[in-house]
Amino acid sequence: MPPSQAPFLFDAPFRNRYFTGRDEELRALVSLLQNGHHAVISAPPGWGKSWLAAAAMRMLVKDDPAFRCLTADLFAAQEPADFLAHFAGRVLEAASPEPAQRLELARRHLPNASPYLDPEATAELRFDRKRLQQHPDEVLNLPEMLATESGERFLIYVPDFQRFAQLERGSHFERRVRAVWQNHRQASYLFTGSGGPAFVQEFERPSRAFYRFAEVMPLQPLSPESCAAYVSARFKAGGKKISPKIAEKLSSICEGQPRLLQELGFHLWQLTGSKAAGKKELRTALELCFALHGRAFIRMAEGLSITQLNLLKAVAMGEQHLSSLPVMQAYRLGSPASTTKNRRLLMAADFLTGEQSDLRFTDPLFGFWLRMRYFGAGIRELV
Ligand SMILES: Nc1ncnc2c1ncn2[C@@H]1O[C@H](COP(=O)(O)OP(=O)(O)OP(=O)(O)O)[C@@H](O)[C@H]1O
Ligand SMILES: [Mg+2]
């Protein structure tokens, strides 16, 4: 992670000072949530879902201090009981800073879950997991109960929501959760997730548990103009200079992907001395990025089948008509059916994004790395 005084920040929790763009998305999102709706932000990794969610929570609280915002993540949850215990703990933490008061609230609202304070860690509330699982509705209703009692509102943010379906086989738990949450009036739910069209279908297919539960907001890349302006402003804030041309070049390489913008911006800023950042420094910054990501890129490529890798090579070389005979033969893509299947899988695995006739790499750096590794391209083609 870059040191805190650096003017660029990546792989780090949200900091408003480093946040740019997304004005319209932020306004729309906050308005939905303020009006009691639920929302889901869908975009590939590194496109800024979590930062947008954090910016929205910041704005909600600023506009109305009675909003209690909390994050219930699925990282440590292996089964429904893990999620329920975590969810109850987070909701109670948001409701009160006092462990004793949290216990009192839990005893009153979750009598079946047998809450107690862990004697080893006094601030931690624990529950009887078996009973939690037997009475999920009690926990799932907790934010609505607390909000109704106190006159507050709750915003529950669940990141990486694509993991939710993996909590158990079948969709019984998912359906239970949806059935309870859909009756809430004082609690709004915000999800983020990746996985392309396969993820969005969770909210758009009538057969799915969360069908039409939340408004789907697909996140677009940042605009090139706003990226270039951001890079110039951050250089200034960090006491260094960059020519407008190089700021534009850097932005066009990043294709509006905020994580890459921050990482490349950071390396370029570090490499820049008293003279304005130029082509030479930008090339070196790119070399550094490729060196840092090279091993991960090799692993990503090695995890693919031959025809999947070939399809990515074709897209990396700018081919769009993947089902045309010359492209299929030149890149050995296999049959039309397997090409269609591979395209779908590569989108679900967040390698590619966009429409059928306008496929792009979710990480432009990986696309260019493929061109370098398999087609002899050099960094000078970029800068
Ligand atoms: N609006 C923004 N302005 C400036 N930088 C941003 C913005 N959004 C995201 N970033 C940068 O991109 C990085 C990744 O953003 P974020 O963590 O929100 O992505 P994500 O879509 O949630 O990814 P993942 O799917 O991996 O969780 C952040 O650490 C930050 O450096
Ligand atoms: Mg995230």
Describe the fold and architecture.
This protein is α/β, with parallel strands linked by helices and about 375 residues long. The chain has three domains: about 20-220, Rossmann fold, CATH 3.40.50; about 225-280, no CATH class; about 305-380, Orthogonal Bundle (Arc Repressor Mutant, subunit A). It has 17 helices and nine strands. Helix 8 links the parallel strand 5 and strand 6. Helix 12 (about 260-270) crosses helix 13 and helix 14 (about 305-315) packs across helix 16. The longest helix is centred in the C-terminal third of the chain and has 24 residues, at about 280-300. The radius of gyration is 24 Å and the shape is globular. Magnesium ion binds next to helix 2.
Please describe the structure with a list of short key phrases separated by commas or semicolons.
single chain; 383 residues; alpha/beta; Rossmann fold; Arc Repressor Mutant, subunit A; 3 domains; five-stranded parallel sheet; two-stranded antiparallel sheet; 17 helices; binds adenosine-5'-triphosphate; binds magnesium ion
